[in-house]
Design a protein that fits this description.
mainly alpha, about 80% helix
């Protein structure tokens, strides 16, 4: 009896502990779900910000590429202006015969002189009558100038090949000054255009930096939520293991109690079973009868037994019936004639 009471008390304690742990487990799962939902919100916001950041960065890159094209265009105008100004200085020096280094010319000016000489010689061949020998000399000179032109052309860009009239140096200088001023004005215009574009780009840099910082902040928030959710999940797993252990103990105790009850019921059933309810005994008797063996009941031996008739009915009951009839006869009053 004491063992049963102790078992019930232990079972009640386990159930109370299980109920408490299951309640705590539900709370932990709710907390974990809250962390996961907060992390998902942070991740969604981060992804949205990153999409905006990526789009803005692409726009900035396109504008920067456009700005670079304009700046390069300005550099070309600047280089052409500088080349023209260099030609002007050399022409001025040539006109004054004040070159400090005789024969030292820039490739641009020398190419201009060679091209001018070739054009003059070709014009002379076409417009002037001359002997065959003189014509051959001019052709040889044109060929020599052509070879020098091929040597100079790789050194001078196409847009910087400026034709000058060496016979009219002063006029060429004025023409070159006008071209230099035009190139300078084009350069300034390109720089102004690039500056205006840059003023449009600068605020985008600030917005880009803000979106990047915001995306980083949301990503850190997402990682923190994931970390907290993982920590709570570890607690859930540990507590779930304990809950399963308690459930297993309760299940084992239920199985043991049920086994004890089944054994007790079986023993009681066997103790209360009479021979006529014993299926095994009945089966054995049936087999004996079928085999032709004699069967005795109640432990009596076979043979003649008082008060037992051959037809199986009790003689005692027959005697009682006869006796009862006699007593009735004796009880009646005699006839009046006696």
């Amino acid at each position: 009896m004491t063992d049963a009471v102790d078992g019930d008390a232990s079972d009640a304690d386990l159930r109370d502990q299980l109920k408490s742990m299951e309640s705590k487990l539900r709370r932990l799962r709710d907390i974990r779900q809250q962390h996961n939902e907060a992390g998902k919100r942070s991740a969604d916001s981060r992804n949205s910000i990153q999409k905006e950041y990526k789009k803005l960065r692409e726009e900035i890159n396109e504008l920067l590429a456009e700005n670079k094209v304009i700046r390069n265009k300005a550099k070309k105008h600047q280089a052409r202006r500088d080349a023209i100004q260099q030609q002007i200085r050399e022409l001025i020096g040539q006109s004054k015969s004040s070159r400090s280094e005789k024969g030292k010319k820039s490739p641009i000016l020398e190419l201009s002189e060679v091209m001018s000489q070739i054009e003059k010689l070709e014009t002379k061949l076409e417009t002037t009558g001359m002997s065959l020998e003189k014509e051959n000399d001019i052709l040889k000179l044109i060929k020599r100038h052509g070879m020098r032109r091929k040597e100079l052309e790789p050194l001078v860009e196409e847009e910087m090949r400026i034709k000058v009239d060496l016979d009219n140096i002063e006029g060429s200088i004025q023409q070159l000054k006008g071209e230099a001023d035009a190139e300078h004005a084009a350069m300034v215009e390109c720089h102004n255009e690039a500056d205006e574009l840059w003023e449009d780009i600068k605020p985008r840099f600030e917005e880009r930096d803000f979106k990047k910082a915001e995306g980083d902040r949301l990503h850190e928030a997402f990682l923190e939520c994931r970390k907290q959710a993982d920590e709570v999940h570890a607690q859930v797993v540990d507590m779930l293991t304990q809950v399963n252990e308690i459930r297993d103990k309760l299940k084992q105790e239920r199985l043991e109690a049920q086994s004890w009850i089944d054994d007790h019921n079986e023993s009681v059933r066997k103790a209360l079973t009479t021979p006529d309810q014993d299926e095994k005994l009945a089966g054995a008797l049936a087999e004996a009868l079928l085999a032709g063996s004699s069967v005795s009941f109640g432990g009596s031996e076979t043979g003649t037994t008082p008060n037992v008739r051959t037809d199986g009915r009790s003689n005692r009951k027959a005697n009682m019936r006869r006796g009862g009839a006699a007593r009735g006869k004796r009880g009646r009053s005699k006839p009046s004639d006696e």
